[in-house]
Protein: thymidine phosphorylase
Organism: Anaeromyxobacter oryzae
Amino acid sequence: MRAYEIIQAKRDGRAIPPADVAALVDGFTRGEIPDYQMAAFCMAVFFRGMEDAEVRALTDAMLRSGDVLDLSDVPGAKIDKHSTGGVGDKVSLALAPLAAACGVKVPMISGRGLGHTGGTLDKLEAIPGFRVDLPVERFRALVRDVGACLVGQTARLAPADKKLYALRDVTATVESIPLIAGSIMSKKLAEGIDGLVLDVKVGSGAFMKSLDDARALARTLAAIGRGMGKRVTALLTRMDEPLGRAVGNALEVVETIELLRGGGPADLRALTIELTAEMLLLAGVAKDLAAARVAVERAIADGRGLAKLEQIVAAQGGDVAALRDPARLPRAAGTYPVPAPASGFVAAIDTQAIGLAAVALGAGRARVEDAVDPAVGLVVEKKLGDRVSAGEPLCLVHHGPRSEPREAIAARVARAYRIEATPPPARPLVLER
Ligand code: URA
């Protein structure tokens, strides 16, 4: 089928033969199929979905668009973690060094901001000099010698995802189980991993808003991974408020350093420990989850996690001094608070709206060619269940030259909060394993 016929068939709800899915992905990656046709196809998939065979064909074609690394000569278990995307989700920044400090090899291909969510690559690039575009040979050497390396998709590693990810980001075609599955698993399977921990987010700040959809995504991701002979663990975790307090690239780096120094917000710390512990378990370097958690907590307490982050940053060209002195990180032009319109308890936060406020400040992209402003973002002062008095700050906004005006941002943030007379029931962070 020609691209037009593939789009038409999907638009009308018909399954696309695997060979045609592969041809479409190959043509798009080579630049023969233009962005507008691929964007139309993604929108058709968004509405019509894909059958299992189509998702397998999509993932396989995206995986084969670049190299599949063989890290069998690197001693130790190679385990990665991937989140389906959230707001304030900076877990990878601390998890990769912590897992490496505990003896796991972490080859990590990450993404940039996507829709209302932030991306690990944009956060890392807030560290002056940090390079995420390393050649494959350097990636392999750093996984072997340092224990972890965090890079982006390249012309050799998952190039189809590099192009498609950027296109989906700006065409509102992210929240689709087949497209998310192809994107995540093509990157992860290209890394040469033995096992993968999946953090499948659910809630107002996730791409999957309901537990049923998140379960379906987790099952699809795990089935693809296990079908390729990988060990896979998936956790369904709450994304109904920003994780931690910082939302925005440099702000999230600062919060990561706080965590690795033994502080940081409790929810971020708990989830980072849990996901890293799952990696240790998959790697076989801890006998059970309880022992794995203790090992990760020890790596925070004795400073090995922070030392490993410094080693990773140095190896990837970043300014290590900026980790010790956050004043060297990009700083916003100024800050202002967003006051609570009423007194009560924070009953709900439209977390996607908070993520979009961060994008409107310049922390994410409106068009493929946009650059992010690493300095801008929000610090969440009031989280779910917190008591708040009218006029108290809900968030502190860090704004920049490209940010939407103060009134527009303040309205976005205020609208995102629901304040009621009673607090909401407390829910665990990890909803299912
Ligand atoms: N993370 C990814 O890598 N891809 C998606 O599509 C969503 C989250």
